[in-house]
């Protein structure tokens, strides 16, 4: 395995700390992060040993429920706008969920040992939930990685809401999983790919060190200035909008196509179901898409507790989340 980003060998997974209170999958702690056991056992080792990166690859990274679906849609629509104009009524995003278009590398490998990622044409647009330190070193050296981050309280609420609906699709049961339980576990960093604050710092620090290789996006800034952040993403991916495209409003058309309201109301996302490795009802990937919804679910005391944990953990790092208060 790669130095500095090594995956846990399969024979060692059973000896790693175990967390069984987060549905739908057991978590194992490795390299300071709580990773779904199935991903750590099968997906991560295969990512490291079987995935061959290309210089043209673009990897979209995100902590769960931090803007993943939106980033996938924006990146795909931008990268492929010549072949699929964003104003086309037959655009792939009008008939396919973003998660079926932009696939998670480690999830593909976790659920299938015959992932056909090599068959995808270049430039490949792929996704990961893995922390930066768990990416294969050759991926970090070869590919461009764009990471989106979100304020922890909002990400927590969105994750809990998603799990309550989606757990049965993975053979789990979250009916009795209360928000208080989710909150307490998250405060201890015991959630998929948590702790979130360490996850964000790794990608942020990488973006500071290597801005040509890592782009760090903030969900709240994307909400405030979607066109400006989209242009940053396009430039990073090597497909910036031309002056002529700007005059024709192509960037605005991409923002409109990928807006929550537009995607949420497409038939495929209202009544469709994920294909392949994510057999989740597509509607579960779309909720409010706003900043500050945490205030409708947690008390001021809970918010203060989590804020203090995050503040203490980030002390001296130079990084901070954008407040959504």
Short précis:
By secondary structure, the protein is of the alpha/beta class.
* Integer count of domains: 1
Percent of residues in beta strands?
Answer: 5-15%
Q: How can the largest sheet be summarized?
A: 4 strands, parallel
Which strand order does the major sheet show?
5-4-6-7
Helix content: 40-55%
Task: Name the helix and strand elements from N-terminus to C-terminus, one letter apiece.
Answer: EEEHEHHHEHEHHHEHHHHHHH
Ranges where pLDDT stays below 50 over 5 or more residues in a row are 1-9
Q: Provide the structure class.
A: alpha/beta
CATH architecture classification name: 3-Layer(aba) Sandwich
* Tally of DSSP helical segments: 15
CATH superfamily: P-loop containing nucleotide triphosphate hydrolases
Protein name: Sulfotransferase
Domain Sulfotransferase: 55-318
EC number: 2.8.2.-
Family: Belongs to the sulfotransferase 1 family.
What features would you highlight for this structure?
single chain; 7 strands; 9% strand; disordered N terminus; 42% helix; alpha/beta; four-stranded parallel sheet; three-stranded antiparallel sheet; 325 residues; Rossmann fold
What does this structure look like?
The chain has 325 residues and is α/β, with parallel strands linked by helices. It has one domain: Rossmann fold (3-Layer(aba) Sandwich), CATH 3.40.50. Helix content is 42%, strand content 9%. The chain has a four-stranded parallel sheet, sandwiched between helices. A three-stranded antiparallel sheet has the order 1-2-3. The chain starts with 17 loop residues before the first strand and ends in an 11-residue tail after the last helix. Its EC number is 2.8.2.-. Keywords: Transferase. InterPro entries: P-loop_NTPase (IPR027417), Sulfotransferase_dom (IPR000863). This is Sulfotransferase.
């Amino acid at each position: 395995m790669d130095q500095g980003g090594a995956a846990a060998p399969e024979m060692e997974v059973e000896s790693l700390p175990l967390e069984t209170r987060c549905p739908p999958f057991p978590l194992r702690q490795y390299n300071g992060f709580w990773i779904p056991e199935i991903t750590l056992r099968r997906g991560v080792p295969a990512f490291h040993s079987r995935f061959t990166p290309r210089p043209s690859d673009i990897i979209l990274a995100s902590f769960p429920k931090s803007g993943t679906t939106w980033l996938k849609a924006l990146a795909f629509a931008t990268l492929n706008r010549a072949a699929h104009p964003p104003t086309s009524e037959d655009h792939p995003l009008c008939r396919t969920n973003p998660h079926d278009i932009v696939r998670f590398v480690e999830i593909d490998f976790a659920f299938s040992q015959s992932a056909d990622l090599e068959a995808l044409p270049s430039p490949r647009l792929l996704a990961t939930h893995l922390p930066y330190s768990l990416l294969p070193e050759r991926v970090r050296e070869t590919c461009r990685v764009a990471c989106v981050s979100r304020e922890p309280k909002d990400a927590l609420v969105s994750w809990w809401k998603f799990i309550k609906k989606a757990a049965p699709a993975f053979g789990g049961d979250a009916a009795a999983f209360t928000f208080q339980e989710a909150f307490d576990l998250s405060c201890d960093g015991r959630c998929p790919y948590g702790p979130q604050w360490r996850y964000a710092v790794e990608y942020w620090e990488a973006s500071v060190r290597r801005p040509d290789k890592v782009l760090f996006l903030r969900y709240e800034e994307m909400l405030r200035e979607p066109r400006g952040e989209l242009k940053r993403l396009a430039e990073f991916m090597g497909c910036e909008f031309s002056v002529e495209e700007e005059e024709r409003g192509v960037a605005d058309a991409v923002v409109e196509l990928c807006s929550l309201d537009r995607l949420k109301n497409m038939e495929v996302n209202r009544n469709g179901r994920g294909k392949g490795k994510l057999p989740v009802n597509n509607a579960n990937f779309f909720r409010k898409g706003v900043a500050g919804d945490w205030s409708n679910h947690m008390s001021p005391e809970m918010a203060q507790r989590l804020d203090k944990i995050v503040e203490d953990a980030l002390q001296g790092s130079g990084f901070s989340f954008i407040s959504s208060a």
